Amino acid sequence: MPRSQRNDNFIDRTFTILADILLQIIPTTEREREAFTYYRDGMSAQSEGEYAEASQNYYKAMRLEIDPYDRSYILYNVGLIHTSNGEHAKALEYYSQALERNPFLPQALNNMAVICHYRGEQAVEQGDAETSEAWFDQAAEYREQAIAPSPSNYIEAQNWLKITRRSRGWGG
């Protein structure tokens, strides 16, 4: 049984009902409806921490989805799963792919910055100052890109840029 047919909580059931109504009203192809169903099931599984199931649904959705904007969100969510699983190199790849299709995903840029910052911290712990600086510089670049379209978001990122004097002109 598809996950969308076995949602237990009120919010998931309500979302599923509304999504099903929209899919009937909005002119879409069978392929688009199927891709959306897999995407929705992936989101549901991901929200419950069922990352393997979520990944399977996202990969099925990607095989069907041809719209670059819609694919960007699928790729972004796959990146989130890899981040949660500590697979940072894979996560960075998926976030980059998402941004190639939709450059207006500041959350992907912010997540990339967090990963780069983490890697910079790891390099510090290993005593590798040169590598840590490179990772922190990359984190700063991603943070600035994330902040640019939405300056009121990512306050922690703005503060980090100020404290580390890595700001290059986003206005902070």
UniProtKB/TrEMBL annotation:
GO BP field: photosynthesis
Keyword entries, A-Z: Chloroplast, Membrane, Photosynthesis, Plastid, Repeat, Thylakoid, TPR repeat
GO CC field: chloroplast thylakoid membrane
Principal location listed in the UniProt entry: plastid
Family matches, as SMART domains: TPR
Taxonomic superkingdom: Eukaryota
Subcellular location: Plastid, Chloroplast thylakoid membrane
Membrane topology term: Peripheral membrane protein
TPR repeat placement: 35-68, 35-68, 72-105, 72-105, 120-153
Function: Seems to be required for the assembly of the photosystem I complex.
Family: Belongs to the Ycf3 family.
HAMAP family (UniProt xref): Ycf3 (MF_00439)
Protein name listed in UniProt: Photosystem I assembly protein Ycf3
Lineage, uppermost ranks: Eukaryota, Viridiplantae, Streptophyta, Embryophyta, Tracheophyta
Gene this protein is translated from: ycf3
